């Protein structure tokens, strides 16, 4: 039987990839399928949580039952939705693949093939949504006991520094829990299976079994549930 250990807990999850417009018909995007974030939303709802999913672009992740879905396009739209909704959330999980950069300007008309060959695309830096949420919490805009979870997609294996990169990222981002995914060579992005580790700010490191994103979601939520303040769970 599924544990019902998140009953009434308000869980906010971002999933999928952001799209950064170049002109009315083109964008810069990524290959995120959204499947891991959607699996987390589904699993959290099954464990009794009240789940809101802020969803960027996805491919075929299925519609989770009993989950409120808010569709967004760009990183800045995702940031606005996450920052606002985090104020009334007990757990915030950034599973989305957020574009680090966006075109500096969005052309109002479709960009034409120029006589001088391709025009360069100039980029501006997007906000780091996860780091921003941690800052918002420190500044009191988000409740101090809200649990903030990040993801890290790292290439390589445990010996190849994936864990070291994960530990450094956990410190740099300041979140409470970081899910480290081993990616590259066909792993994680767009696939059905996933594996990795869960690192907590208090130094716990838990290996995740290789398996479906549903199984990953359930193991990740076990770790998240252990960080949710006792008073919240009935
Ligand atoms: O630094 P990196 O992109 O590897 O960090 C990944 C984590 O940070 C993920 O949880 C992702 O959702 C989040 N992120 C973000 N805003 C960005 C880039 C990444 O919130 N601009």
TrEMBL record:
Catalysed reactions, as listed in the record: (R)-4'-phosphopantothenate + L-cysteine + CTP = N-[(R)-4-phosphopantothenoyl]-L-cysteine + CMP + diphosphate + H(+); N-[(R)-4-phosphopantothenoyl]-L-cysteine + H(+) = (R)-4'-phosphopantetheine + CO2
Recorded GO MF terms: FMN binding; metal ion binding; phosphopantothenate--cysteine ligase activity; phosphopantothenoylcysteine decarboxylase activity
Cofactor note (record): Binds 1 FMN per subunit.
List of residues binding CTP: 100, 110, 127-130, 151, 169, 173
Cofactors required: Mg(2+); FMN
Keyword terms of this UniProt record: Decarboxylase, Flavoprotein, FMN, Ligase, Lyase, Magnesium, Metal-binding, Multifunctional enzyme
Keyword ATP-binding in record: no
GO biological process, one term: coenzyme A biosynthetic process
Region Phosphopantothenate--cysteine ligase, annotated ranges: 11-234
Coiled coil residues, start to end: none
Recorded metabolic or biological pathway in which this protein acts: Cofactor biosynthesis; coenzyme A biosynthesis; CoA from (R)-pantothenate: step 2/5; Cofactor biosynthesis; coenzyme A biosynthesis; CoA from (R)-pantothenate: step 3/5
Function field: Catalyzes two sequential steps in the biosynthesis of coenzyme A. In the first step cysteine is conjugated to 4'-phosphopantothenate to form 4-phosphopantothenoylcysteine. In the second step the latter compound is decarboxylated to form 4'-phosphopantotheine.
Protein name: Coenzyme A biosynthesis bifunctional protein CoaBC
Organism expressing this protein natively: Gordonia neofelifaecis NRRL B-59395
Portion of the full-length sequence here: 181 to 414 of 438
């Amino acid at each position: 039987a599924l544990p019902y250990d998140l009953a009434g807990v308000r869980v906010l999850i971002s999933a999928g990839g952001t799209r950064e417009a170049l002109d009315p018909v083109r964008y810069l995007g990524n290959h995120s399928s959204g499947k891991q974030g959607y699996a987390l939303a589904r699993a959290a709802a099954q464990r009794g949580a009240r789940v809101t999913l802020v969803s960027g672009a996805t491919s075929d992740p299925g519609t989770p039952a009993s989950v409120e879905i808010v569709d967004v396009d760009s990183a800045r739209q995702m940031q606005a939705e996450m920052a606002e909704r985090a104020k009334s959330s007990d757990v915030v999980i950034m599973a989305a693949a957020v574009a680090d950069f966006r075109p500096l300007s969005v052309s109002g008309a479709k960009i034409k093939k120029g006589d001088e060959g391709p025009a360069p695309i100039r980029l501006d830096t997007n906000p780091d949504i996860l780091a921003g949420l941690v800052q918002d919490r420190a500044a009191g805009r988000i409740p101090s006991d809200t649990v903030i979870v990040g993801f890290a997609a790292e290439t390589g294996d445990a010996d190849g520094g994936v864990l070291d990169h994960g530990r450094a990222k956990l410190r740099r981002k300041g979140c409470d829990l970081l899910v480290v995914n081993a990616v590259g060579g066909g792993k994680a992005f767009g696939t059905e299976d996933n594996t990795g580790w869960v690192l907590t700010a208090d130094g716990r490191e838990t290996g995740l079994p290789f398996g479906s994103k549903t199984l990953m979601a359930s193991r990740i939520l076990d770790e998240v549930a252990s960080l949710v303040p006792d008073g919240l769970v009935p």
